[in-house]
Amino acid sequence: MNESSGMSVCALQSPVVYNEGGSPRICVVDCGLKYNQLRCFLTRGVRLEVVPWDHSLNTDEYDGLFLSNGPGDPAMCTAVIENIRRVLQQDSKKPIFGICLGHQLLASAIGCSTYKMK
Q1: Backbone dihedral region of 72: left (phi > 0), alpha (psi from -120 to 50 degrees) or beta?
Q2: pTM
Q3: Phi, psi values for residue 108, rounded to 5°
Q4: pLDDT digit string (tens) for 12-42?
Q5: What span, in angstroms and rounded, lies between the C-alpha atoms of 44 and 38?
Q6: Which of 7, 60, 79, 95 is the most exposed place for a label (fewest CB within 10 A)?
Q7: Sign of the C-alpha dihedral, residues 61, 88, 14, 17?
Q8: What is the per-residue burial (b if ≥16 Cβ within 10 Å, else e) of 11-36?
Q9: Strand order through the sheet with 16-18
Q10: Contacts of residue 35, Cβ cutoff 8 Å, sequence gap at least 6
């Protein structure tokens, strides 16, 4: 998968906010997320801003960052990895959680390499 085709087919194209008055504010980077993940946050009263995989991230706009799962090889996701790397370099430190591909993207952003297990 390359970024211009795979993620853009299975992910959101523009930001969407759910539960505007909720708290805390979680930014969800959509790399092909499953909607049950959103339901789990929303049942807990969280404000969600779901952004496309290539969206520029600003730590002033959220309390925590969630990197979703999705298809493909994290090594091909250079734009997402670079956005995460920029977040990690900012002075304002916020919690970051990744699931599946999101966890691999976070690992790649800190310099780890990933590989497919048999």
Answers
A1: left
A2: 0.87
A3: -65, -35
A4: 788 999 999 999 999 999 998 999 999 999 9
A5: 10
A6: 60
A7: negative
A8: bbeeeeebbeebeebbbbbbbbbeee
A9: 16-18, 47-52, 25-30, 64-67, 96-98
A10: none
